[in-house]
Amino acid sequence: MRAMFTLLLTAGLVAAADAPLEATLEGTDKYTLDLGGKTADEFTKSLKGDKVPPSPKVDLKLVLKNTSKEDIQVWTAGDAVVVTFALKGKGAESAKPRLAFTQEYRLPKAVKVEAGKTVEFPIKSLTGGFRSASEFNYWTQPGEYELTATITTGVSPKPKGADDAGDGFGKVSVASKPLKITVEEKK
User: Fold this and answer.
1) Domain spans of the chain?
2) I need a labelling partner for 54 at 20 to 30 A (CA). Which of 12, 131, 137, 141 fits?
3) How far apart (Å, rounded) are the C-alpha atoms in residues 88 and 103?
4) Whole-prediction pTM value?
5) pLDDT tens digit string along 24-56?
6) Cα(53)–Cα(93) distance, rounded to whole angstroms?
């Protein structure tokens, strides 16, 4: 049987750095509210335990652009890469249930990003955090929302001010500008 542990903390604090990256959220900006037949109050109450409903499915991507004049390497996978979301608007809710994860550490994988080029991270739901599975975000009523994504990753060469992540990489955190999203009543 695999050893399991309860995740208490995700990524540690990241030093402010002059990261040569710009983050943008792109994709569909209109969705239909689906609370699984529950009222907004019933749905919100269901977020209080350790078993929460799946977060809404979305069709988005987080795009990181290399804003420097040189090629860089960026971690795109592994436990050190963490994407989190901040959803704002009337009816925005979030949940961080206590969850168990396998104990092995998944090493980061890097890709080369040429100067001025991008690397994309597909986003299929509003679930983020450790292994894209520890933080859940929801809209519980129709209306206008703003979604911001923040990615913690490694960049090589290590940017000025970044925490040393080893092998010439520095740990950085980059946030996107908010994406406006409209959530409509189910017809």
Assistant:
1) 15-184
2) 12
3) 33
4) 0.85
5) 999 999 999 999 999 999 989 988 877 888 899
6) 12
